[in-house]
Amino acid sequence: MKKILIVGTLDTKGMEFKFIKDVVESTGMETIVINTGVKGAAAFQPDISNSQVALAGGSSIEALIAKDDRGEAMAVMTQGAAKVVLDLYEKGQVAGIISLGGSAGTTIGCCAMQALPIGVPKVMVSTVASGDTRPYVGVKDITMMYSVVDISGINSLSRRILSNAAYAAVGMAKGEIPAAKQEKPLIGATMFGVTTPCVTKAREYLEEQGYEVLVFHATGTGGMAMESLIASGFIKGVLDITTTEWCDELVGGILAAGPARLEAAAKMGIPQVVSTGALDMVNFGPYESVPAQFKTRNLYKHNPTITLMRTTKEENIELGRIISSKLNRTNGPTALFLPLKGVSLIDMEGKPFYGPEENAALFDTLRANIDRSRVELIEMDTDINDEAFALAAAKKLVEMMNQ
Question: Which domain of life is it from (predicted)?
Fold first, then answer.
């Protein structure tokens, strides 16, 4: 029988984890408690001890206690918890996982959760869940619940919050996922608000052709999530219309997806159609958060929380070089589509980011650097959101997937 994993420091938060265990087991679900505490004695007997976790992390609990280095102990127990959890999953014992904690406990718990595949229920009750959770969630489907009060004892408020979290984990674990009527090949597509018309039209066409399309919001984590699913073998084709995350990676915006963006499809050798969607913009937060060195640039208040900055000619040249180098490594069918009349809804004549010189620098660099023996270059005299452009890109991907 699969069980709910409970991962946490039983020396400092034993009472709270015992409460979680009791609530889960009151529903008829069984648990496996994993102790990640280092110094103190466990408040109750775990199923997997901190000694076992430390060994899995490459050390011993005695060595960690003797050295008394909190940073090293955190690293060992984090790595060990992830290995223990993954081992249990591979043995078919995991129905779901729940943890709770402050910043340290959240780090350990979420790293353990990230070791599990997408789809396995994951609940993290955290004192830091109302802030920036990207370092903890990454690209996995972790449900973060803000603890409201510190996790210190069981009181009238924490009792309700921890109960809700436990019941949520049980509900997800017991729930039956409706089976799809027919398994369809998965296509990953990238979209931004300023490329929505293009991706929507392409998605509709691809769905009509019998494909299932996963649309990823190109906000950093979106691109990272798509790359991860491609590398895991879930996605069979890519419509990477919106490569804007490279602008933030290059210039220092807030929506970067990391230096490995645009690599997974090339490595896996799956068909990919790539374009230059939203390469006209770098993303920052509210206007007042834009770094001082950029205040004189062409800025556009997209909404109260997002300010866009037009990319320069020099930045577009570098973006062209980067994208070319990524695509030239491809092991599979690849096509690069260039929309010559604009790369976003606000990069057209009369719009705030209209930049024919900047786009020419981008397109010329791509033309000069793309390896035509590996990458098919297709230029269209439309903007990126033109229906003809969207359909041409979608049809090219279908053609390559059929081949």
Answer: Bacteria
